[in-house]
Amino acid sequence: MSAQSVLLNHRRWRAWEPALWLVAFAAPLVLSSHALIVNEIAIVALFAISLDLVLGYTGIVSLGHAAFFGMGAYSAALFAKHVMPDPLVGLAVGIATSTLLGALCSATILRGSDLTRLMVTLGVGLILLELANKLDWLTGGADGLQGVVMGPLLGTFTFGLDGRTAAYYSLVVVLILTLLARRFVQSPMGATLKAIRDNRLRAMAIGIPVNARLAGVYTVAAGMAGAAGALLAQTTGFASLDLFEFHRSADVMLILVVGGTGWLYGGIAGAIVFKLMQDAISAITPQYWTFWLGLFLVVLVMVGRDRLVRPWNWFGKGRAR
Amino acid sequence: MKAPSSHHDTVLAAQGLVKRFGGITATDNVTLNLKKGARHALIGPNGAGKTTLINLLTGVLEPTEGRIFLEGQEISQLAPHQRVRRGLVRTFQINQLFDSMTPLETLALTVSQHRGLGAKWWQPLGANKDVAARCERLLEQFHLTSVMDQPTRVLAYGKRRLLEIAIALACEPRVLLLDEPVAGVPAGEREELLHTVAALPSDVSVLLIEHDMDLVFSFATRMTVLVNGAVLTEGTPEEISSDQRVKAVYLGHGDEINESIPMGRGAANQEAPHV
Predict the structure, then answer these.
(1) Is B162 within a domain?
(2) Which residues contact A280 (CB under 8 A, 6 or more apart)?
(3) Cβ distance A43 to A174 under 8 Å?
(4) Helix H segments across chain B?
C-alpha cells in the first residue's frame, strides 16, 4: 500500500461513528421524556472535547477550563438579556468572547511544567469566579443571572418545556464542532500538536513554532468550551457562579479520563457514562452518588479502560491499543 | 548583517562563542567555520563541550557572548525553529522521537511542516501528493517501509535510530549537525546507518560529533578538536592524527583513554537502548 493511502486510511470514518450520531439524534424523539438529559450530555461532551484538544492532543494540563465555559455562558446570557434574544447570534457572541479570553490566557500556559500550568489555569478560573461574584450589577452575583428569555431558534422553533428544541439545537452545534475538531486533529496542524505533546524538544528541532501552536490550540479550545457554556446558558435560560466553579473544571477532566484522551470521542463516551451514572445512581441514593462515582474511577484506573471495555480479553495476552 | 568572514563559501560560522553556566565556562571562545559541502568532524573527550556547542548553534541555549552566521546571515537571535527553517538541522545523541506516532506520520508531519503546510488545518495529513511521495522515498532510503505504520514506541532500537536521522533529512537541511549518529546502534545495523550518512547529498554541509574514531576518520575531511570547551586545534585528519597535543589529550591521561579512543564500540555503552 502506498504511503499516501496508509495516511489517508487513518482518517476514514469508522462504522460506529455515524451510528453513534444517529442514536444521539434519535434519542430526543424516542425517549422524549429524557430530552433534557440528552441536551446536558451533548453540552458536557462538547466541553470535554474542547479539553481533549488541549489535554489529549497537545498535552497541556488544565484545571481551569471552566473559565471559558463560564465566559461563554455569561456572555450568551447577558447578550440575550440586554441586546437580542436570537440564540445563534448569542452563540456566536459566546464563542467570540471566550476565544478572546483564551487568546489572552494562552500567554500563561506557554512556559513552565505541568504543575505550574495546573496552578496557573486553576488561578485564572478562580479569578473569573470572583469577578463574576463581585460584578453583581452585571452578573447578578451569587444569585445568578436570571430572567434570560431566548427567542425562537431560526425564528421558528421555540424552546419549550419538553426540551426537545434545546436538545436538537445542542446536538447540531456539537455535531458541527466535533466534525470541525475531527478535521483539525487529522490535519498537518493537528499532527504538529501531537508532536509537541510527544516531544517538545524535537518538535522545535523540526521547525514547529511551538509557542504559537500552543497559544493557537488553547484559543481554539477556549472558543469551543465557550460554545458549550453558551449552549447551557441558552437552553436553561440561566447563568450562575456555579459555571465557573472549580468542580466544573475537575469534572470535565474526569469525564475525559473516563472516556480516554486523544481521540475526541473520549469526551462523548465519558460524558455519556458520567451523566447516565449520575442520573441513575443519584435517583437511587441522592446523597451518596459521588461514593459510587469514586469507586468506579478507582476500578477504572486500577483495571484499565481497555480491559473494562473488552472483558473478553481478560484472559488473553495484554495488547496495547 | 553580513558575516565579516572573507570566505564566502563558508556556510555556518561561529565567532567567539562563549557559554558560561554560573562559574563554569562550558564553551570558551569557540570560532568554527563550516564550508559548503563540508564533511567536518568535531571531536574531543567527554565533557569537552561538544553538545553544548551544538545547543548554542541550534539555539536551544543562548550564548553568553559571540555570534553565529548561516550563509552570511546572522542567526544568533533566532529561535530554534526559525533556524531550522533556514536550513540548520540537527539530530540528537539520545533519540528524540514522537512515540505515539508512526514513522510515516512522523515524516509526513515533518515534511509538511518544512514545506509550509504545518499550519494547514483543513486538509488531512497526507493529502498532498508531493509530501506523500517524499515520505515514501525517505522510508525506503532509511529501510523503514516495513514498519511505517507501527507506533514508533514499539520499534527496535536500530529502526528508531534510523528514524532519528530520517527526521532530520526530511527537513532538507543545508547544514546538518549529527550528534553521535551511531551511538548505541548494534553492530549489525551500523553499516546501514554509516552508508546513509556517507550518501548524504554533497551540497549538504555536515558537522559530525562522534566518539567512534573509525567513523570520524572514514567520514571527515576536516576536524576540530575541542578540549575543556575551547578549540585545541583544527585541521585535516592527517594533521590531527599526527598532532602531539591531540595525542596528549587522548592518550596522556589514563582515565580518559577508555572513553575517548573507543576504537569502535565505546559509545555503544553510553546509552541504554530504550526499546
Answers:
(1) yes
(2) none
(3) yes
(4) 50-58, 80-85, 103-114, 129-141, 157-170, 187-198, 213-219, 237-241, 244-251, 254-260
Separation between Cα atoms, residue A25 and residue A30, nearest integer Å: 9
Instruction: Please name the helix (run of DSSP H) or strand (run of DSSP E) that holds residue B180, with its range, or none.
Output: none
| Cβ distance of B167 and A188 shorter than 8 Å | no
Angle, in degrees to the nearest 10, between helices A210-236 and A66-82: 50
Nearest to B204 by CA among B112, B98, B90: B90
Taking the model in full, what pTM does it have?
0.87
For residue B100, give how far its alpha carbon lies from the nearest alpha carbon of chain A (Å). 7
Cell digits of residue B73: 546571515
pLDDT in tens, B144-175: 999 999 999 999 888 898 899 999 999 999 99
For B223-266, how does the pLDDT look when each residue is reduced to its tens digit (9 = 90+)?
999 998 899 999 998 888 888 888 887 765 544 444 444 443 33
Chain-chain contact of B105 with A7 (C-beta, under 8 angstroms):
yes
Interchain CB distance below 8 Å, B112 and A191: yes
Residues of B in contact with A3 (CB under 8 A): 104, 108, 126, 132-133, 135-136, 139, 148
Q: Which strands form B24-35's sheet, in the order they lie side by side? A: B24-35, B10-21, B65-70, B73-74
Minimal-distance CA residue of chain A relative to B95:
A202
Task: Determine how many CB atoms are found less than 10 A away from the CB of residue B26.
Answer: 20
* Predicted complex ipTM: 0.84
Give the structural domain span for B135: 96-172
By the CB < 8 Å criterion, does B94 face chain A? no
* Closest Cβ–Cβ partner in A189, A204, A208 for B120: A189
CATH number of A18-267: 1.10.3470
Q: Per the structure, how many domains does chain B have?
A: 1
**What does the domain layout of chain A look like in residue ranges?**
18-267
Q: Could you say which of B109, B139, B170 has the minimum Cβ distance to residue A192?
A: B109
**Measured CA distances, A295 to A260, A261, B204, B257, B262 (Å):** 18, 20, 60, 59, 57
Rounded CA-CA distance A42/A27 in Å is 11
Q: What is the spatial distance between Cα B118 and Cα A241, in angstroms, rounded to a whole number?
A: 39
